[in-house]
């Protein structure tokens, strides 16, 4: 042991032993850095990070074409020659065209009929098939098949059923009921109703499943209390079931109405707007204007009008629903 210049004793290193030194600094592992980075983010950002790729793709393939269609609606679209600005001329042509006005009327009638029919039949099916037994699940699956079946196959089947001859399937049923044969898809007076029937047959099972989900949330004690008061089945449905299903009705009305306004495949495959334009709707007319006649600007204007009608319908239904909820909470 010897003293240093400062008077503090210095420890001599023993032979065979390394001198003491500070521990080495170990860099943080990449996983630790990622964990600290995730902890530094607010909690509300995590769901949006997971949704970001899907939202980017949705915006690219949904809103970009919508923006392009809005631009086209104010132009005379001339491929390879450049678009020419025409202002509101395309919208004026749409508003004054007799074929377009007739298509609007057919669309409204079809939307109202399919919406009302699918909701009523869907509710009746849900009331009959409500429950948790295994046999009911099998029946529900069978009833739901029209919704998931390919529309091309469905259209061909219904075209066979609607065969206008006297020995056709539907005409045979009508003869059993004492009614005369019908032209169905081939008649101007019956074609729209025939297409409406196909839409109801296809949409009712979808509404049924949503009604069944809504019925599962109804308080069963209300049924027991109403039964104890002597209420019958119809009164229980009217005073207990239907008020509890108000939110479901609002959702289904919005979805079914939008589905009716945007109907295309059924018309295109069954009648293609015929006979004599009796089943021409907005979607089929827009398709023909844009892809068959080459009037892309007019077709884009029609699609913008259809989009505006869909948005307004949704806002009106949501406003009615919010007003009803406020009245209930008072």
UniProtKB/TrEMBL annotation:
What topology does the record note for this protein and the membrane?
A: Multi-pass membrane protein
Please state which protein family the record places this protein in: Belongs to the binding-protein-dependent transport system permease family.
Location in the cell: Cell membrane
Keyword annotations: Cell membrane, Membrane, Transmembrane, Transmembrane helix, Transport
Listed Gene3D superfamilies: MetI-like
Main site of residence? membrane
Gene Ontology cellular-component terms listed: plasma membrane
Biased composition of type Low complexity is found at 1-14
* Organism of origin: Rhizocola hellebori
Recorded hits in SUPFAM superfamilies, A to Z, give: MetI-like (SSF161098)
Q: Which domain of life is it from?
A: Bacteria
Membrane-spanning segments:
41-61, 100-129, 141-161, 192-216, 237-258, 296-317
InterPro entries, per the entry: ABC_transporter_permease (IPR051393), MetI-like (IPR000515), MetI-like_sf (IPR035906)
**What is the protein named?**
Sugar ABC transporter permease
| Keyword Transport belongs to the record | yes
Which biological process, per GO, is one annotated for this protein? transmembrane transport
For this UniProt entry, which residues form the secretion signal?
none
């Amino acid at each position: 042991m010897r003293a240093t210049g400062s008077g503090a004793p210095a420890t001599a290193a023993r032979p065979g032993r390394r001198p003491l030194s500070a521990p080495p600094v170990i860099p943080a592992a990449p996983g630790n850095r990622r964990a600290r980075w995730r902890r530094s983010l607010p909690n509300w950002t995590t769901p949006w990070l997971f949704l970001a790729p899907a939202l980017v793709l949705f915006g690219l393939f949904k809103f970009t074409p919508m923006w392009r269609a809005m631009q086209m609606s104010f132009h005379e679209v001339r491929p390879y020659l450049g678009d020419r600005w025409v202002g509101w001329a395309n919208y004026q042509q749409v508003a004054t065209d007799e074929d377009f006005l007739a298509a609007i009327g057919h669309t409204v009638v079809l939307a109202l009929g399919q919406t009302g029919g699918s909701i009523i039949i869907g509710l009746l099916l849900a009331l009959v098939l409500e429950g948790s037994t295994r046999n009911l699940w099998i029946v529900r699956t069978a009833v739901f098949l029209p919704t998931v079946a390919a529309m091309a196959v469905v259209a061909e089947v219904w075209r066979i059923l609607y065969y206008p001859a006297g020995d056709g399937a539907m005409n045979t049923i009508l003869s059993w009921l004492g009614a005369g044969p019908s032209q169905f898809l081939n008649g101007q007076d019956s074609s729209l109703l025939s297409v409406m029937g196909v839409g109801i047959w296809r949409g009712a099972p979808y509404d049924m499943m949503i009604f069944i989900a809504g019925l599962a949330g109804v308080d069963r004690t209300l049924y027991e209390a109403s039964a104890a008061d002597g209420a019958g089945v119809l009164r229980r449905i009217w005073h207990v079931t239907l008020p509890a299903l108000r939110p479901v009705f609002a959702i289904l009305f919005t979805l079914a109405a939008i589905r009716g306004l945007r109907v295309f495949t059924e018309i295109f495959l069954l009648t293609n707007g015929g006979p004599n334009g009796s089943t021409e709707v907005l979607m089929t007319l827009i398709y023909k204007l844009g892809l068959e006649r080459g009037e892309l600007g007019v077709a884009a204007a029609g699609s913008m009008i259809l989009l505006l009608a869909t948005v307004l319908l949704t806002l009106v239904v949501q406003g009615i629903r919010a007003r009803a909820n406020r009245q209930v909470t008072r």
